[in-house]
Automatic annotation (TrEMBL):
Occurrences of domain Quercetin 2,3-dioxygenase C-terminal cupin (ranges): 151-235
Name of the featured protein: Pirin family protein
Family from the record: Belongs to the pirin family.
Source organism superkingdom: Bacteria
Length: 243
């Protein structure tokens, strides 16, 4: 009998920030949104669901000692940083910055008219003061269709991006009869985020923006997708991020 604990995080309970040019939904405490019960999960600290209107963006600002990645759902995001990187991030791309000893960067909507919709996600690193690094990889629809594709892992396995933490991130696309089963190795926690569409996770129906904590996860089953795009975080069995 499974001992997996399932805790639903409904999309409509997330924190909201609206600055005109930016509309952001915060899964966990961020900025002016504070909830003692939503301080992250294991080493996962931030999931911000951001929509930036045409011509808008985040001016140059600093970070240090944080693993930060962007996952674009629609539109295009223009990136520049103090390491000399400049790129445009589109759906299918995953961009990862290890801030380490310190970086400065900006993210702007690449379009003056169309919105860009993306997830900004932070993972607390297991090493401080590392040399900053930048990574960007495109994962095709075929790699994620009806299955879970590893996009981030500690050692950058199978073409994934590397992260300074004992954590993996997998992405999948599910429609109709497509399904996938994931079994973590050892005693692990899992966080599920439904980026788009709807999907059933371990018998629980989840819609766009929903999340779920699965403590001591033995198996994760995804099925009955309806235009679903899902991120699965394989994490250490801790409750909250530590600094």
């Amino acid at each position: 009998m499974s001992t997996t604990e399932f805790e639903h995080r409904p999309a409509n309970e997330r924190g909201i920030a609206d600055f005109g040019w930016l509309h952001s939904k915060h899964t966990f405490s961020f900025g002016h949104y504070r909830d003692l019960n939503q301080r992250g999960f294991s080493d996962l600290l931030v999931i911000n669901d951001d929509t930036v209107h045409g011509g808008g963006g985040f001016p140059t600002h600093p970070h240090r000692d944080m693993e930060i990645f962007s996952y674009v759902l629609s539109g295009a995001l223009a990136h520049k940083d103090s390491m000399g990187n400049g790129s445009v991030i589109v759906p299918g791309d995953v961009q990862m910055m290890s801030a380490g000893t310190g970086i400065r960067h900006s993210e702007y909507n690449h379009s003056d008219t169309a919105d860009v919709h993306f997830l900004q996600i932070w993972i607390v690193p297991n090493q401080e003061s590392v040399t900053p690094r930048y990574q960007q990889v495109n994962f095709s629809v075929a790699e994620k269709r009806g299955k879970l594709r590893t996009i981030i892992s500690p050692e950058g396995e199978n073409g994934s991006l590397s992260v300074y933490q004992d954590a993996k991130v997998l992405a999948g696309l599910f429609d109709g009869d497509e399904s996938a089963t994931y079994q973590p190795e050892g005693d692990r926690h899992v966080y599920i985020h439904v980026a788009q569409g709807e999907v059933t996770v371990n018998g629980n129906r989840m819609v766009e923006g929903d999340g779920a904590r699965l403590r001591h996860a033995e198996v994760v089953e995804l099925s009955q997708g309806k235009g679903a795009e899902v991120l699965l975080f394989d994490l250490r069995p801790n409750e909250y991020p530590s600094f």
